Amino acid sequence: MAKSLNFREFAQPTLKVTMNDADETVFTLTAPSVEMVERLEANQDTLLATFKKGDRESLDEIWKFAADLISSNREGRKVTAEELKGRYGMGYKMLFVFLEAYGEFVNEIEEAKN
Question: Which of 57, 52, 53 is CA-nearest to residue 81?
Fold first, then answer.
């Protein structure tokens, strides 16, 4: 049995995201909460359909969801959908690529648990 347990040495999974702004802002995303995983799983099937359809109201919700995901970062910075589109230069296709990468990140975490 181990004589000590140091959680500072425990490597938490992260996903580094470099934004498309002049400062090349980096967000170190942490593992999502159970609530966020449930939101991601619940919306997974509708995400692709929404992108294809291009419904403005649905896309706005996806931007907000992406902002929530990115706001879960080690730096403690909160971002809004408007900041992603404006300040951080995240375009429509970048949004799609981000969500795909984030889904893979979550899958890797889930696989590591098993």
Answer: 57
What confidence tens digit (pLDDT) does each residue in 46-64 have? 776 776 676 777 788 889 9
Contact 53, 92 (CB under 8 A): no
Determine the residue type at 71.
Answer: S
Q: Say how many CA atoms lie within 13 Å of 9 toward its Cβ.
A: 3
Tokens standing for residue 98: 């981000």
pTM, entire model: 0.82
12 with 30: CB under 8 angstroms?
A: yes
**Chain position carrying tokens 């170190």:** 28
Distance CA 10, CA 18 (A): 24
